[in-house]
Design goal:
By secondary structure, this protein is α/β, with parallel strands linked by helices. Helix content is about 30%, strand content about 30%.
Length: about 475
């Protein structure tokens, strides 16, 4: 008999939890039984509103038991869930939600934020009748379960489409399939601090892992580290390179008691080796350095005691290939291709890019790396021209085109540079138009921020007379920086 699609295992987990606390929110303890009742109510409300398999549902939600119940309920009815993360421009929000039929929101101005689809207020959905019957999952394995936004080559969010079959195969809810590093991590997630939005892939998937390991989800609004870790007695949380740098600096300046902390899952741009070493000295062996993509989910993860830069032994099928597509031996750099149980099936509405990235069951990561003699993964570069800001990938091409469209700029070239706050930032190099003065940095930043978001706005602008060229006559941006 075929397994019930996602979120069947999660519904069973909540039912089995009974009166055990699975979530803490605003001083309130929420049991598995209570959370499952909320899922039933929202499921009933969604079905009464006409939401069914394949319907697009955009979600603008924070964190809390009601918000988690809404995400689970939308999957229970088989909807195509589109999570709208903070930080998108209005145009990006509209592009991402262009073909949704419903919007579930916990925000008073939810209708004004996204002028598409029918708005369903979370508060109203939670007030629906509870029939007390375990919901039947209506999802079909081949249907798209969620659309995960990531930046693309046009500047609009690319949308990774993950099917219900892929979500059902996710490692998070399958303890029997956990690789050693995930089993060790799950054992440290007794009190997992969740923040931002539960529509986030990273936050939801790690949250599922915590629940499967018997842990409690502890909510925080916009947490400041280390205060939030201390206040909520968190044993685990997700952290970006920028947040880790600030946490280390804060603890170095004013030590606090972080004795409860056992795991920080680091994601985003590669951290400086010195940061990992200092984090180990100040915080203890708590940093799990992960590598993954929106398209693939987790690929590999290093234990806290691992050598800085090493990403552990991949937990999925991985090949390092040369330019001809041939697999390379250990110790040789090449492009990384992977196969993961929960990988996306393609980009929603973009068959051309889908064919480029998803081929013959493999995902082309467009990252460069190598495997060592112990099977550990090391990243060495990118084939993509991108900047990673606060763990989000943004292409540089749209930034260059926007800057070059300014009447005072003849050419523009952008590179990613290390940034102590965001992990990486954009450094723009511009060639002035004849007889023109280059605009002030503030003007160029405002131009980019308005169209592509603040994360893409250049942190620095350098005027150049001409761009250096490769032997083939193409711009060589690697030579722009000393």
């Amino acid at each position: 008999m075929a397994e019930e699609p996602f979120p069947g295992r999660l519904l069973d987990l909540l039912e089995a939890a009974g009166e055990r606390t699975v979530m803490e929110h605003a001083g309130r303890l929420v049991s598995g039984r209570s959370l499952l009742a909320a899922v039933r109510r929202v499921t009933g409300g969604l079905r009464a509103a006409g939401v069914g398999p394949g319907d697009g549902v955009a979600m603008t939600l924070g964190v809390g038991p009601g918000q988690l119940a809404a995400v689970v309920a939308a999957h229970t009815v088989g909807a195509r869930v589109v999570g709208v993360r903070p930080g998108l421009t209005r145009r990006q929000e509209e592009s991402l939600t262009a073909d949704v039929s419903f919007i579930v929101t916990d925000k008073p101005d939810g209708a004004a934020m996204l002028c598409v689809g029918r708005v369903l207020a979370l508060e109203v959905l939670l007030g629906s009748r509870d029939d007390g019957i375990r919901p039947v999952v209506a999802a079909r394995p081949q249907d798209v379960a969620r659309v995960l936004p990531t930046s693309g080559s046009t500047g609009e969010p690319k949308s990774c489409a993950q099917t219900y079959g892929a979500m059902t195969a996710l490692w998070a809810l399958r303890p029997d399939a956990w690789p050693p590093v995930i089993r060790e991590l799950a054992g440290r997630m007794d009190r997992f601090l969740v923040f931002g939005t539960l529509a986030s892939q990273v936050m939801l998937d790690y949250g599922l892992l915590a629940l499967a390991g018997g842990g409690v989800l502890v909510t925080a609004g916009v947490p400041e580290f280390p205060d939030a870790l201390v206040r909520h007695r968190a044993t685990a949380s997700v952290i970006t390179v920028a947040r880790l740098a600030r946490l280390v600096a804060a603890v170095r300046e004013q030590p606090v008691d972080l004795g409860a902390l056992r795991a920080l899952m680091l994601s985003g741009s590669p951290p400086p080796p010195g940061l990992l070493r200092e984090a180990g000295e100040l915080l203890g062996p708590v940093v799990f350095h992960g590598y993954g993509q929106t398209e693939t989910g987790m690929i590999s993860m290093a234990m806290p005691e691992e050598e800085p830069g090493a990403l552990g032994v991949p937990a999925v099928d991985l090949q390092v290939r040369d330019a001809d597509g041939s697999s390379l031996p250990p110790g040789v750099d090449g492009e990384i291709f992977v196969r993961t149980p929960g990988q996306a099936s393609g980009y929603w509405g973009d068959p051309v890019l889908s064919a480029e990235v998803f081929a013959e069951g493999w995902v082309r990561t467009r990252d460069l790396g190598r495997l060592d003699s112990r099977g550990r993964l090391w990243l060495t570069g990118r084939t993509r021209d991108v900047v990673i800001v606060n763990a989000y990938v943004h292409p540089l091409g749209p930034v260059e085109r926007l800057l070059a469209g300014h009447p005072a700029v003849a050419e523009a070239y952008c590179v990613a540079v290390p940034d102590a706050v965001a992990g990486e930032a954009v450094h723009a190099f511009v060639v002035p138009a004849d007889g023109s003065e280059v605009p002030l940095l503030a003007e160029l930043r405002a131009l980019v921020a308005a169209e592509l978001g603040v994360a893409c706005a250049p942190a620095a602008v350098t005027v150049i007379r001409e761009v250096p060229l490769t032997a083939a006559g193409k711009p060589d941006k690697r030579r722009l920086l000393p």
